[in-house]
Amino acid sequence: MVLLFVPLLFWSLAGYWYIENHTLAANIQQLEEAGRANHEAVARYTARLKVLMAKDMSHTTERSMLMYMVDCANAQLVLDTITFTENGFTITGISTAPEVVLAYSQKLKSVLKGVTINEKQGIDAARKVHTFQLSGHYGKSDDTKKTTNKASQ
Fold this sequence. Notes:
- It is built from four helices and four strands.
- It is an alpha+beta fold.
- The longest helix has 53 residues.
């Protein structure tokens, strides 16, 4: 009886190990296929991100820029209008002092990399407030182009 039990135990263990090994190999194959699909998706995303980042600020959507603009404004500023164009934006509003507009302009310049910001300020005599208009343009500023041309001459 023992002689019959030992081979039966051996074949049972061998069958169990074979089934477990086959199941493990199938699971590994599924994980490799899922990993390959994820790797391809990450590679496509990375390539797309490199293309978008190479365009300086053109990858930034209007919504995110609007969020930065509103986030940078403080309680001493009222943003009347924000208009987006193909190559930039325009912000108009009122402020309590000219220094507040200058600080807002500097903060926007630091947050929105690659954007040239020009500002105009005035005083509305009827409302007795400071008005401002900020114009932002994507890309290099005209000053850097001028210095580059002077250096090359």
